[in-house]
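Appendix C reproduces, verbatim, an entry submitted by the partner laboratory led by Prof. M.T., so that reviewers can inspect both the input and the predicted structure.
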Amino acid sequence: MPVSSGPITSQRTLLARRLRDLRATFGQLYRRHGSALADQAVTIARDAETSRIAEFQPSMIPSLVQTAAYAREVLSLPCGPSSWGISADEIEKLVGERVRRQGVLYEPGKSIQLMMGEAAIHVRFGPRETMIGQLDRLATVAGLAGMELAVVPFSAPFPLYRRA
């Protein structure tokens, strides 16, 4: 028996409209704060001021340990900064800032806790070589002093943060 596509079509239309509005909001936010580069500068400054950095990414490699090639692929996605009008040159500058931010990994006294879902090591952004380089990077940073790197396997219950 055929199913009416009316409600599904209207849901898709609503979701597409919300997605478009969210992209516009993010684009306006970046422009208002001086661009995605300005946002990176704020993040680098915050990293310098703190003794503990924690990040959770369910389906991608945390930005603090991304290789330049991986970051470039992520930032170049159609749903990423390029959809907000950021040029290829600006994406290269963002990649450079993301890599520069990684200097915090080597600062004494920093406690860095990065957790990702297993999907992060399976989802490929770009060519196979990009992911091989990224996995090599993860193996390298896992041994740094002050670094805790965790992968939540697909078989584990998804972690939820609860405030006390």
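Residues 7-152 form one domain. Additional entries are available on request from the coordinating office.
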